[in-house]
Amino acid sequence: MEKIRGFYIGRFQPYHYGHESVIKHIAEEVDEIVIGIGSAQLSHSPNNPFTAGERVLMVTHALEESVSLPFYVIPIEDIQRNALWVSHARSISPPFNEVYSSNPLVVRLFRESGTEVISPEMYERENYSGTEIRRRMLAGEDWQSLVPPVVAGVINETDGVRRLHDVSGSD
Amino acid sequence: MEKIRGFYIGRFQPYHYGHESVIKHIAEEVDEIVIGIGSAQLSHSPNNPFTAGERVLMVTHALEESVSLPFYVIPIEDIQRNALWVSHARSISPPFNEVYSSNPLVVRLFRESGTEVISPEMYERENYSGTEIRRRMLAGEDWQSLVPPVVAGVINETDGVRRLHDVSGSD
Amino acid sequence: MEKIRGFYIGRFQPYHYGHESVIKHIAEEVDEIVIGIGSAQLSHSPNNPFTAGERVLMVTHALEESVSLPFYVIPIEDIQRNALWVSHARSISPPFNEVYSSNPLVVRLFRESGTEVISPEMYERENYSGTEIRRRMLAGEDWQSLVPPVVAGVINETDGVRRLHDVSGSD
Amino acid sequence: MEKIRGFYIGRFQPYHYGHESVIKHIAEEVDEIVIGIGSAQLSHSPNNPFTAGERVLMVTHALEESVSLPFYVIPIEDIQRNALWVSHARSISPPFNEVYSSNPLVVRLFRESGTEVISPEMYERENYSGTEIRRRMLAGEDWQSLVPPVVAGVINETDGVRRLHDVSGSD
Amino acid sequence: MEKIRGFYIGRFQPYHYGHESVIKHIAEEVDEIVIGIGSAQLSHSPNNPFTAGERVLMVTHALEESVSLPFYVIPIEDIQRNALWVSHARSISPPFNEVYSSNPLVVRLFRESGTEVISPEMYERENYSGTEIRRRMLAGEDWQSLVPPVVAGVINETDGVRRLHDVSGSD
Amino acid sequence: MEKIRGFYIGRFQPYHYGHESVIKHIAEEVDEIVIGIGSAQLSHSPNNPFTAGERVLMVTHALEESVSLPFYVIPIEDIQRNALWVSHARSISPPFNEVYSSNPLVVRLFRESGTEVISPEMYERENYSGTEIRRRMLAGEDWQSLVPPVVAGVINETDGVRRLHDVSGSD
């Protein structure tokens, strides 16, 4: 019997419990997971404060604690040409046969390429979102409760909240 | 005490026992290893037949069998500007504090950036080389004995030898 | 006597009767027409749903029906450097000696390069515009009457309205 | 019954009777032809003297004289990533369902994407080749007999032989 | 004793007395100045009307009149990857050991690379800003008093106000 | 009377007395000189060991000693599209009205754009060449006598000969 390898992509700015709830759900249905770190080339901006390398670290540490099947964490740069994006993602990822995404563009692009896509619900989307977490970081509110402790650890080691303040031009 | 994370980069076209001997040696000196898949954008050419995704699969499966410490496998595209390469590699890899390389350019670029580099000896370099393995694939000679069985498995599943023949214009 | 070849550029997302009215007007004044498909690299987005190839098809079929002189349909990618755009357009188009455009940037760039530009009026610009057509597609209103039947045919064959819905995140 | 649209790609530096013999053969088997002008971004070099625009002109004029079915002439820039090339070519060309090529890489890439490829024989390949024609241009030998008269016309109008001399550093 | 070379970057769209006040201040503290012309690839747009070459001319002429120490004027293209920007700027500029900037992103990026940054106050920032000057150019108000006469000269020679009108689509 | 500004481009890997002889000759015929540092993005390779910034320094210091008219030193990255190169060079350089070059491609490209080019003789080309100087650096022979002392100074400060050895894989 062939192995089922599922693909899930996000920007993970930062990784949070919303991602975790989706990935745990996927983990019940596949043998292995490929996590794509989207917009890998972006960092040090208000919407994309963390580098791809920092995000690889967050995701890897978080998945080591929450899922027990094999996984791959792959930085994927934007390619600025939607019509080529599926080929791009497939060429730098281990081969996968199922795709999980709620992003309408990702869903459409995979469907046009002949790959069916499963759109999982994300848990409490209004709180568990990168936008909300970055907002709280800038406002000095609690954000740690929205991410796994190992992710908070990576952010603190890289002085991430201070970086977000600086690149947002706030103080 | 801070963790030591070592960085090792190769093109892995394909991964072979020469790489394994170096990585086992590194594994004795660090806590975690980051493996960079160099020239990640190249594939389907005589010198670079395999995609980054296929190489991620080879390296991951091989390391699962040969080392017991945590590792990260990161595709790294060429950037065509040597003076920026170190920043590029650092931005998409988890942070590392030791670099292992025998490539004179990699050594020089890291040294100019202030990072010391350790140049390990590679075991039987004349046989255990991607060039020799690709030559044997085209000549119909034994190449399987130069790579771990899991790597031969990935190559066979992706019809790799036939692809190499095709893109080399040989028959 | 030398042949007069006119150049006209648009994004054609999609091609509509406004374009047709301009092109018919140009056709009265030149011997041959070069149609540039602008922003050729864009597709699958709310403002640029169609690929360059689909737009080549729309324009070619439409011009076969509406003009009787020779024409060339050339996809032109954006170059992100305005100062180079005229050279870029000239290098991938058959040589032309007259330019028709109402786009202020295109007009300025050609003028600085020493080429005079003719700015034709577009017929009923408020209705015959890509923006209005894409709005109607999303709203489920009549858009077919704004484009030639062969263009509606191309859009329907490529499931274009559904694609626009999907990439717009609407339903 | 669905239309059969065939795709044929070449660099056409310049277009010659060898291309014509292949295209006439294809024309017997399809309803429409898409001609891709490969390496469209290259010009003014010893192996690629002509711009994409000049090559569009050569191919268009030559096909107007030699085939009677509809055709599209599409400049296609190199994308430097073989794994994405098929998606790239498909996104800027009208949709096609048959591919004709003798280039081993093109054949392989389309096959991996699930498209069958037909490899036509080229007539007297040793003479009817761009390499031979450019050699003759530099040597001052007869090259005109290897290309259709309309192609020789385009080359002469653009002072092509002198350009080839200049960029080859010969005199 | 080693020479102190200071680095200061701006877009200079156009160069104005605000820049001059900062540069005069820097000139008191260093031996040589490197002026980076940021976003060098941009021109002919409402926010970036002038080419890099025109800005080199403005800055060079202005500094010849206002400072008496050696200076270098270096066009620096954007690199679209913040994590690589410092390496990029350092690779095309003469080596510098002090950085002057009030841009929060530039400050942060240099600090993460281990370079301290001095943030000088800009004189009357609300008036002496490129945004205000371009607004006045479009409104037909006095802008000449905000820039050195040699800068106004460069702008007039290149028909700069007319260009700004044209690319802004105003009249 | 309008100012005559001459343009001269080289890679300057490194700057040597052959360049100086040409530039002194140009200086007799123009009011100002623009020096383009070609292939600005290349460094740390056997044929292009020095960064653009290091080359700006070499050229600036050398010209300060050998010519007495105003000059501009402009790094110019390759653009990989010959047909756009003249527009590219013009957009990042101060406007120039005379071009000096012996490079056949540069001569041809400027001529096609309508700019006449003057091809100066270079003094003792077989010795005064970057190729010869880099060969001598690797062979441990005298190279200092072929370059102005200030250039040798820049090379020594950046540990240039050692870098060339390292990136050449020699020892």
From TrEMBL, chains A, B, C, D, E, F:
GO terms for molecular function: ATP binding; nicotinamide-nucleotide adenylyltransferase activity. It catalyses: beta-nicotinamide D-ribonucleotide + ATP + H(+) = diphosphate + NAD(+). It is found in: Cytoplasm. Its EC number is 2.7.7.1. Transmembrane segments: none annotated. NCBIfam families: arch_NMN_Atrans, cyt_tran_rel, PRK01153.1. Residues 7-136 form the Cytidyltransferase-like domain. It comes from Methanogenium marinum. Pfam families: CTP_transf_like (PF01467). Belongs to the archaeal NMN adenylyltransferase family. Keywords: ATP-binding, Cytoplasm, NAD, Nucleotide-binding, Nucleotidyltransferase, Pyridine nucleotide biosynthesis, Transferase. This is Nicotinamide-nucleotide adenylyltransferase.
